[in-house]
Design brief:
Blueprint (H helix, E strand, L loop, with lengths): L1 E3 L8 H16 L5 E3 L6 H9 L8
Parallel strand pairs: 1-2
Helix pairs in contact: 1-2
């Protein structure tokens, strides 16, 4: 499954957490999910959540 983020205008840490949590839930069911076409500025919240191991943390 591919999450196309090209039309996402803004992404905060809560949104990144929700996307990453969904990706982990799909993985647990045997589905590989990936994010594509994210804007450069979306990399910061997505990376922060992934580094935190998918746990909600205030950075």
């Amino acid at each position: 499954m591919t999450f196309d983020l090209s039309r996402v205008e803004s992404l905060d840490s809560a949104g990144a957490w929700l996307l990453d949590r969904t990706r982990h839930e799909l993985k647990a069911k045997g589905c590989i999910a990936a994010f594509v076409n994210a804007r450069e500025e979306h990399g910061i919240p997505l990376t922060a959540i992934m580094i935190a191991g998918g746990e909600w943390r205030s950075l």
